[in-house]
Design goal:
This protein is of the alpha/beta class and about 425 residues long. Helices cover about 40% and strands about 20% of the residues. The chain is built from 17 helices and 18 strands. Strands 3, 4, 5, 6, 7, 16, 17 and 18 form an eight-stranded mixed sheet that branches. An eight-stranded parallel sheet has the order 8-9-10-11-12-13-14-15. The protein binds N-(iminomethyl)-L-glutamic acid and fe (iii) ion. Fe (iii) ion binds next to loops.
Length: about 425
């Protein structure tokens, strides 16, 4: 007998045994999986994890019906299921806004000029330093909720609007707190080397010393960061300064990543690769040597089309080279008040296709499996495999490409985080 075109022969006996022997919490039946062939599958979950993913068959469904209560069997009825979405690069804990700079840029003033005049990142630093922990949390909760409502199950959040000990810690504590307040996994990143604070005017080396000596050790002691990031750029820090920071990160056992080659080609990506970094992000000005280094190191390329669009950049990241060398590409919002105040991961998927020439399939991998790798979470989430966290989304779509092609009504039907439908 066949159900929905899937023959019940072959593995079905084995499947039934597995179901009968192991207590399953829930079963999503008749699911079409974006990362598999065009059959119908059953996703079995147990204690927050994917217990197994097996082809649908009448026998298996009958076995489930006899061992689980009806509410634990969710019939997806041929709907598409993807891994939960992952936004692997955000700066979503901050206070204030920069609408005035948006207006300036529309008049032709560049992002770099605004930064050199004390605006840009420093404008947000002033606001964020003034905000209390509770205020920061209150501002950040709806931002994370907005991502959750789109199907995001893991979000990365950076510090970098403090640039002094207390505010950097406050931001990271707020980011960690978001994970206990909302049903989402938060990966935190220390970005003390984001900009030079006024206290260290003309003394970038002194500021890096301070980060290495005081801030990063404090962050590490409190276990507030899962990775260390930097901004390697003319308006940020030099390769040598970033190297010193990375050496201290390595001493604390923290993986590194970088904002590199965004406005010029300084060689920050090669530095990240030298440290076997998780990801190099932005990459518009990346050259072939940098791409090669990433491929050898297994570093993920995180593309940020929102910042490219918002800053009216014209230099495209080297997508074809990244493909040629087999560098995994991830896509993220880079949500921040200056260069990408755009809190839609689906919009980023669309922009990655329209502006950067990715395929919809690459865009989907960019916000699932490759985004997980950019956070070092590839064994935990981003794929529908036994043993992984049960993070997935059920969509009202006709095919997975629609996730990148269309931005109309919210097509998220159900989001499942760590086995819990929400
Ligand atoms: O990823 N490049 C540096 N940092 C952010 C921008 C932060 C800001 O402008 O506030 C980025 O684009
Ligand atoms: Fe960023």
């Amino acid at each position: 007998m066949a159900v929905n075109g899937v023959p019940a022969t072959g593995s079905s006996d084995g499947d039934n045994t597995r179901i009968n022997n192991v207590p399953i919490d829930r079963a999503w039946i008749n699911a079409r999986l974006s990362d598999r062939d065009d059959q119908l599958y059953i996703i079995l979950t147990r204690s927050g994890l994917i217990h197994d993913v097996i082809p649908s068959s009448a026998e298996t469904v009958a076995a489930l019906q006899s061992s689980l209560n009806a509410a634990s069997i969710i019939d997806v009825a041929g709907g598409w299921v993807t891994p939960g979405l992952i936004d692997c690069h955000t700066h979503l804990v901050f206070a204030g806004h920069r609408a005035n700079e948006f207006e300036q840029r529309l008049q032709g003033v560049s992002y770099e000029t605004i930064a050199r005049q004390g605006g840009g990142i420093m404008a947000t630093v002033q606001q964020t330093r003034k905000a209390s922990f509770d205020e920061l949390l209150k501002l950040s909760m709806p931002r994370v909720q907005a991502l959750i409502d789109q199907g995001v199950t893991t979000v990365e959040i950076k510090s970098g609007y403090g640039l002094e000990l207390e505010t950097e810690l406050k931001m990271l504590r707020a980011a960690r707190e978001l994970e206990s307040r909302l049903p989402v996994r938060v990966s935190t990143t220390f970005l003390g080397a984001h900009a030079l604070p006024p206290e260290y005017h003309n003394n970038a080396d002194g500021y890096i010393d301070f980060l290495c000596r005081e801030v990063l050790p404090a962050v590490a002691t409190e276990q507030l960061a899962d990775a260390v990031d930097m901004f390697c750029e003319g308006i940020g820090f030099s390769v040598e300064q970033c190297r010193r920071l990375f050496e201290v990160a390595a001493k604390h056992g923290l993986p590194v990543k970088g904002h590199t080659e965004q406005l010029s080609c300084l060689g920050g990506t090669r530095l990240v690769s030298e440290f076997k970094g998780l990801s190099a992000d932005h990459l518009e000005y990346l050259d072939e040597a940098g791409v090669k280094a990433m491929a050898q190191a297994g570093t993920v390329a995180v593309l940020l089309p929102g910042a490219f669009y918002y800053l009216r950049e014209t230099k495209l990241p080297p997508i074809e080279l990244l493909r040629q060398y087999g560098v995994p590409m991830a896509i993220a919002t880079d949500f921040n008040p200056g260069s990408s105040p755009l809190l839609s991961l689906r919009l980023m998927m669309n922009m990655a296709c329209v502006l950067f020439g990715l395929t919809p399939d690459e865009a989907l991998k960019g916000v699932t499996v490759n985004a997980a790798q950019a956070l070092g979470l590839q064994d935990m989430t981003g794929k529908l495999l036994p043993g992984m966290q049960a993070d997935f989304c059920v969509w009202n779509i006709s095919c997975p490409a629609e996730l990148a092609s269309e931005l109309a009504v919210n097509t998220l039907h159900q989001r499942v985080f760590a086995g819990e439908p929400g």
